[in-house]
């Protein structure tokens, strides 16, 4: 079994000893129900750190009132076993009470306006405030040298990187590539919600993004039309899209002259399941 602690004081003590010995600490925050996408983050962290800490915490504050907090898959035993192979040094599994000791009275929030207001932020009000606040708390508990996040949640990565810079947090926020199923579907804990029929359609999200990328790489600059085409493809393949957007990958603003790299991002629902994905590439 992976060494597991639930209290910040225990975690601090353990990490403090490592740090005193000169170890470089890597941190991978997750909500559990681990898949190869998470494990790839852990493996990458292992390559660059002497010690790796993984957290599993299903953060209630990043779910909207009608979202899937209650039914989010909690699979701690299997997760703990999965973390043995890459050799995680410590698993942190705090309770909600530990992370938010003031409960509903907790009033400190971390907000990253603009970057956090568009795309997923517009469709999930409060989501990124919940993410930024919990990640700040977790970073303060663990105090790693670097923390690793997945490209699948690219807007999340960008805003956490910005947050760390703006608040001068002594941590490097890094990104690892999206890990996919054989048909291209980005791995996600939410994929388990999909019915067989929905699962057979789900890779169309990735295909729509790939088609948009190909058009842009071939020199098409009619981004509005490319977005409209993407939305139409998603609807035609059974999705209810939230957005399909071509953006400057550095700012998530519109692609303007001087833009160096592009992000094509989409979020769409298949039945009750909301899927997101994106592709990043240089603008030739
Ligand atoms: P979650 O448990 O969904 O909150 O995700 C924890 C971390 O794993 C986040 O940094 C995600 O971006 C990352 N992640 C989730 N799915 C994937 C994937 N398919 N490929 C790469 N990273 C991922």
Describe, in plain words, how this protein is organized in 3D.
It is a single chain. The protein is of the alpha/beta class. Helix content is 37%, strand content 20%. The chain has a six-stranded parallel β-sheet, with helices on both faces. Helix 9 runs antiparallel to helix 10. The chain binds adenosine monophosphate (AMP). The site of adenosine monophosphate has 17 residues, from helix 2 and strand 5.
Tags for this entry?
284 residues, alpha/beta, six-stranded parallel beta sheet, three-stranded antiparallel beta sheet, binds adenosine monophosphate
> What is the beta-strand fraction?
15-25%
| Regions with little confidence, pLDDT below 50 for 5+ residues | none
Proportion in helices = 25-40%
Which class best fits the helix and strand makeup?
Answer: alpha/beta
Give the overall shape. Answer: globular
> What is the overall pLDDT average?
97
Strand order of the largest sheet: 1-4-3-2-5-6
* Distinct ligands: adenosine monophosphate
Distance between the termini: 48 Å
Largest sheet: 6 strands, parallel
N-to-C SSE string, H for helix and E for strand:
EHEHEHEHHHEHEHHHEEE
In angstroms, what is the radius of gyration? 19 Å
Total number of beta strands: 9
Counting DSSP H or I runs of 4 or more residues, the number of helices is: 10
């Amino acid at each position: 079994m992976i060494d597991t602690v639930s209290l910040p004081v225990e975690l601090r003590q353990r990490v403090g000893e490592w740090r005193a010995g000169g170890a470089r600490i890597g941190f991978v925050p997750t909500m559990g129900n681990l898949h190869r996408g998470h494990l790839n983050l852990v493996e990458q962290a292992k390559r660059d750190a002497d010690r790796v800490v993984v957290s599993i915490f299903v953060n209630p504050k990043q779910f909207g009132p009608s979202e899937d907090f209650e039914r989010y898959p909690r699979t701690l035993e299997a997760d703990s076993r999965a973390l043995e192979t890459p050799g995680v040094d410590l698993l942190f599994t705090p309770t909600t009470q530990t992370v938010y000791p003031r409960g509903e009275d907790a009033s400190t929030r971390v907000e990253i306006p603009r970057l956090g207001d568009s795309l997923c932020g517009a469709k999930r009000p409060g989501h990124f405030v919940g993410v930024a606040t919990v990640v700040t708390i977790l970073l303060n508990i663990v105090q790693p040298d670097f923390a690793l996040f997945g490209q699948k949640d690219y807007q999340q990565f960008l805003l956490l990187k910005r947050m760390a810079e703006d608040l001068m947090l002594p941590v490097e926020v890094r990104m690892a590539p999206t890990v996919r199923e054989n048909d291209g579907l980005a791995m996600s804990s939410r994929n388990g919600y999909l019915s067989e029929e929905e699962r057979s359609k789900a890779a169309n999200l990735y295909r729509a993004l790939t088609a948009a990328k190909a058009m842009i790489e071939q020199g098409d600059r009619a981004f509005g039309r490319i977005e409209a085409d993407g939305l139409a493809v998603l609807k035609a393949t059974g999705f209810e899209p939230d957005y399909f957007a071509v953006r400057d990958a550095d700012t998530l603003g519109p692609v303007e002259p001087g833009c160096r790299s592009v992000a094509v991002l989409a979020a769409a629902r298949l039945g009750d399941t909301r899927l997101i994905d994106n592709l990043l590439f240089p603008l030739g």
